[in-house]
Design goal:
By secondary structure, this protein is mostly helical. It contains 16 helices and 2 strands.
Length: 426
């Protein structure tokens, strides 16, 4: 990770892990074979595999499927390559297996590079996604970042490239920089590249908005989200110095016709002000009154030209953003996974969690439980022993059924005795 950022929160202590009782299991199968690795120690997460299947056999089965997919990712058929790369992504989403990946690191990195260089459309998108998932599997992804940075910057800046592909590459560029960027100079230079993309949506003179097709607006939104992720690595003093300039530019994006871009811009403003208020409690951004008025309108927007879903999402998001800007109040959310709870009680943690949950999707809980890299990001410490399926004492389904049957039998016998006593009374 570029920097182990530990941010203050005057009202709460940032993200915390709390052990709670939970019956939730992380379930899922890789390549529809029911085999999945869950930890560095080759802990197997039980999915659809039949009872009695040996743990080692499941691990070998999973690794064999992954090796087959890696081999198929070099075939001549573009559709076949995309399918194979997607299979590898699915494997990395459903499992955490750094020892296996370390041996395949350069091979997978070459696959990503080939997909980005020679691929088109979907192949570029899935290749970019794979690069981030690869970095999350490694103890030190700096080598992957250095290998792919130049190509990713080139694609991100290429206005002739497919917008969806550019958005995926911009997202992955930020993720690789966050996880393996090393020096802060790398973070700053990558942020400049990303701002060069979404700055096209800045308002012009007289607060007039440029008009773009939806796919370009989605690219700008993805780039701004990636920029915000990297901003969380900067110190409060550094963000304080750029606060007024950045907010004045981002404020214009609140007028965008795209709900995702409006919300992303609002959260970026709240994030900047959280850092600025941390550095100087008396700080007041220029044009605060106009900014809060804009946020209030968005938090109560009832414009019928927007869909009901967009209006609901916007109002919910901007109510929290308004509290952060006006009163300095942090968000108050918690994420339960397994027996732990992650508290998101500051904007920089929320921005980080939202970004990683979009990348990991259904695999978020598994990686929060067992992925050392992700647990370091959220300061969760080492994985809890309770998440090791081999040491878990939770009864199986058959054991629970047997216990229920015994309880039912005992209850029936007790009731029958009482019935016998009642029948003897005259």
């Amino acid at each position: 990770m570029a920097k182990n950022k530990k941010k203050y929160n005057s009202k709460a202590g940032g993200a915390k892990a709390v052990v709670e009782n939970s019956d939730t299991d992380e379930e899922g199968s890789v390549l529809n074979d029911g085999a999945s690795l869950a930890s560095e120690a080759s802990t197997v997460v039980q999915g659809d595999a039949e009872e009695g299947v040996d743990e080692t056999s499941q691990v070998e089965q999973f690794e064999g499927k992954m090796k087959d997919a890696i081999e198929l990712a070099t075939q001549k058929s573009a559709a076949g390559r995309v399918k194979a790369l997607d299979t590898i992504c699915t494997g990395f989403l459903k499992s955490y297996c750094p020892d296996f990946v370390e041996n395949q690191q350069m091979t997978i990195c070459d696959l990503v590079e080939r997909a980005l260089k020679k691929g088109k459309g979907g192949e570029v998108e899935v290749g970019a996604k794979l690069s981030t998932l690869l970095a999350l599997q490694l103890h030190d992804p700096e080598e992957v970042y250095k290998e792919l940075k130049g190509l990713m910057v080139q694609i991100t800046n290429d206005k002739t490239a497919n917008p969806a592909g550019r958005a995926s590459v911009a997202t992955s560029l930020a993720g690789l920089c966050f996880l393996g960027g090393g020096e802060m100079t790398e973070v700053v230079s990558t942020m400049a590249v990303l701002e060069g993309v979404f700055s096209a949506s800045y308002t012009k003179a007289g607060w007039t908005l440029p008009s773009f097709p939806p796919e370009i607006t989605a690219l700008h939104s993805a780039s701004l989200s990636a920029w915000s992720l990297l901003l969380t690595l900067q110190s409060s003093g550094e963000v304080y110095r750029l606060a007024n300039s950045a907010i004045s530019k981002l404020e214009g994006l609140l007028l965008s016709s795209d709900v995702e871009l409006r919300i992303t811009a609002g959260e970026a403003i709240a994030l900047i002000l959280e850092f600025a208020y941390d550095y100087d409690e008396e700080f007041e951004p220029e044009g605060l009154e106009a900014l809060t008025e804009s946020l209030k309108q968005l938090a109560t927007d009832s414009n019928k030209s927007r869909s009901k879903k967009d209006r609901k999402e916007q109002r919910s998001s901007f109510r929290d953003i308004l509290k952060g800007v006006e009163e300095g109040d942090p968000p108050n959310e918690k994420v339960k996974f397994g027996q732990e709870v992650l508290y998101l009680d500051c904007w920089f943690k929320k921005v980080q969690y939202d970004w990683f949950s979009k990348v990991l999707g259904s695999g978020t809980n598994l990686h929060l439980s067992s992925n050392y890299m992700l647990r370091e990001v959220f300061e969760l410490g080492a994985p809890l022993p309770a998440f090791d399926a081999t040491t878990s004492h939770r009864p199986t389904k058959n054991e629970r059924n047997a216990a229920n049957q015994l309880a039912f039998k005992a209850r029936t016998q007790a009731r029958n005795k009482n019935r016998d006593k009642r029948s003897a009374v005259f």
